[in-house]
Every structure is written in C-alpha cells, then in structure tokens.
C-alpha cells in the first residue's frame, strides 16, 4: 500500500495580492509548500515554508482553506493549504539564492498554478479576501 505523504502549502496574501515563488528547479511558479516535519503541526510547517521559501512572516487562517492531492515520483501527496496574511517581507531569507519571489494579482496567481485543486483554493481564498475588504 502506497503511504500518502502529508504536505502543507501556504497562500501568502497582502493588499489583495498573492506571493508566488519559483519551484526549486526554477521552471514554474508555485506557492510555498513542503513536508510536515514530525513534531510540528501543519500550521507550524506552513509558517516555516513561507519563511524558508519566500522570506515571509504572517498570520495563518485559523482553519485550512482546503486540501488537494497530487502524484509525484509514484507517490500520492496530500497537501493541506492555509491562507496567510503577510505582516513582514524580508529582503534576505534561507532560499533566496534558489527561488525568485513575485507578488501577483489573484487571476495571475491562478493562471500560473498548474495543480487544479490548488487553483480552486486560491480562487476561493481570494474571493473571500475581496468580499471581506
């Protein structure tokens, strides 16, 4: 039986825009995402990924915005997705030399996102953010 790998992703938002980073290969745009290390909650992992991959600090939504599944290297990955209100953007961060960071409007973020499930979550999160403002 194929064990499902648990991951977490974060949709960083500020002033109606979404922060995206390049994948480690640099070939596509993604939101910060990674494995949930043992001993850490999904929320802690989400904050850690936002910092390491994008240099962002912020406040997570209380509950996950959603989740999606994808297959990579013959394994199924289950990704829990949180929205994050960004409060601080660092000029220097752990993966700065590996990734580019860019703030885009929600439509551009959805257009750049390859995973259908994640695209739907970005759309829902951005719709809620617009309605709340």
Model description:
By secondary structure, the protein is of the alpha+beta class. The chain has a single domain (5-132), classed as Nucleoside Triphosphate Pyrophosphohydrolase (Alpha-Beta Complex). It has three helices and eight strands, in the order ββββαββββαα. It has helices at 42-54, 106-112, 116-132; strands at 5-14, 17-22, 29-30, 33-35, 56-60, 66-72, 75-89, 101-104. Strands 1, 2, 3, 4, 5, 6, 7 and 8 form an eight-stranded mixed β-sheet that branches. Helix 2 (106-112) packs antiparallel against helix 3. The model has no long low-confidence stretch (mean pLDDT 93).
Provide the fold topology:
Blueprint: E1 5-14, E2 17-22, E3 29-30, E4 33-35, H1 42-54, E5 56-60, E6 66-72, E7 75-89, E8 101-104, H2 106-112, H3 116-132
Parallel strand pairs: 1-7
Antiparallel strand pairs: 1-2, 1-4, 2-3, 2-8, 5-7, 6-7
């Amino acid at each position: 039986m194929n064990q499902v790998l648990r991951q977490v992703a974060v949709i960083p938002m500020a002033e109606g825009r979404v922060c995206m980073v390049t994948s480690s290969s640099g070939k596509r745009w993604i939101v910060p995402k990674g494995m949930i290390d043992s001993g850490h909650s999904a929320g802690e992992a989400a904050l850690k990924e936002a910092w390491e991959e994008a240099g962002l600090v912020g406040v997570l939504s209380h509950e996950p915005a959603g989740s999606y599944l994808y297959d990579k290297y013959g394994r199924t990955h289950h990704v829990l997705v949180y929205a994050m209100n960004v409060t601080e953007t660092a000029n220097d961060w752990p993966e700065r030399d590996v990734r580019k960071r860019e703030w885009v409007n929600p439509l551009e973020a959805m257009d750049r996102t390859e995973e259908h499930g994640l695209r739907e979550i970005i759309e829902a999160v951005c719709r809620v953010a617009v309605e709340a403002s």
